[in-house]
Amino acid sequence: MKGKKTCIRDVAFVRPNQHCTGQHYVWATLSVLILAFLHTIIIYAVVTLNLDTHQIRVDKYVYNVYIIYSTVLVLFICFYPFFVMFFVRPKKLVKYLINGYRWHLLSKERIFFSYPVLAIIPLDKSIYSSFKAEIPNINPFWLDASLCKLDRIIFLGQDPWRILRQIFSNPEITRVIDFLYHPLWISLLSVTVLFHALGRHSLENRLRFFLGYIIVWTILGNACAAVLSSAGPCYFSQITGQAGPYEELMRYLHSIQTDGQLLNAVQIQERLWSGHISTVLEYGGGISAMPSLHIATTALFALSMRHRYPAAEKMLYIYTLVIWIGSILLGWHYAVDGLVSVLCVMVIWYYSGKLTNTIMIMKKDSSEE
Q1: Range of the domain at 64
Q2: TM spans, by residue (predicted)?
Q3: CA distances from 253 to 77, 270, 329, 332, 344 (A)
């Protein structure tokens, strides 16, 4: 108890949910684990009926993600003493650091919720990505031509990318959007997962995020992507065998180079198509347009910041809009892909809240018994 008091300024600043018991964290973790397990069972059942299950791997993202986790841990261990010395300035520094490391790294919240959830997420993401790469074998791309027509209907006979190109015609703007679309999104994905696993906001909000997160990758990233199998504007000609309205856009994107390097989007698109043709399962592989997981996840990130972090929420809504614009300008998605994604995420966020409330009520009832 004395150690806890000596760390109170520090703990109040960064340590979450001091009112929760170990049972609360275990109950929340089990909920996430069960949802991820159901995702795995469904994927294996679908693949068993259509393909060889050896194509489904649970270790695809583990190495890369655990490197990120290890880096964050090392940075915390190294920089935590500087934080304490400059912002807390305790009288007994060594004793404070020992207690601080114990509370931050070995608390019930970390052992029963943060670490297990951080272990579950890359395994579930590997299942998602493995199945995504197999979608064309289960249900060949068939929806691209219809999505192209639907875009033109929504935008009154115009191709959305042509309208946006008139607004964002400078290649420098395209380079910025290219950076925001992929490199920044990848970083944001990792930061947001770590934020909700290790953050100081309520367990209910964090559980709701992780339930919604797994549901998004399961329902939108796998189920909907398989049913609405489509490749995207950048592959329109290869998939449909038609010239299509996107050749001019792709020529423009290929013309933009920085020090001889193509845009990130163009390089990744070429790598994904090469992997699709060679059927090589690789990190980040698989092609799917409808719905857009880039837009779905950023919308989910924004919703998860509601009420407690309104500034971050607004910034993430703006970022979601930028990602939607980028998905069209960079040839990744049809405009309707993003619109459908946002609507679906709003529904998923609502029902993940309902599910979270049910889980927490069940925990309360079991505690009273």
Answers
A1: 2-368
A2: 25-47, 67-88, 210-228, 283-303, 315-334, 340-362
A3: 43, 12, 9, 11, 30
Q: Are 178 and 265 a contacting pair, CB within 8 Å? A: yes
Q: How far apart are CA 136 and CA 287, in angstroms?
A: 8
End-to-end Cα distance, the chain: 28
pLDDT along the chain (369 residues), means of 10: 47 49 86 94 84 66 84 92 89 90 87 93 89 90 96 95 93 95 93 91 93 97 96 94 90 89 93 84 79 97 92 96 97 97 97 92 60
Our measurement of the distance from residue 309's CA atom to the centroid of its chain's CA atoms, rounded to an integer in Å, reads: 19
0.85 exceeded by pTM: yes
Distance CA 46, CA 42 (A): 6
How many residues belong to the chain?
369
261 beta partners = 258
How many structural domains does the chain have? Answer: 1
> How many other C-beta atoms lie within 10 A of the C-beta of residue 121?
23
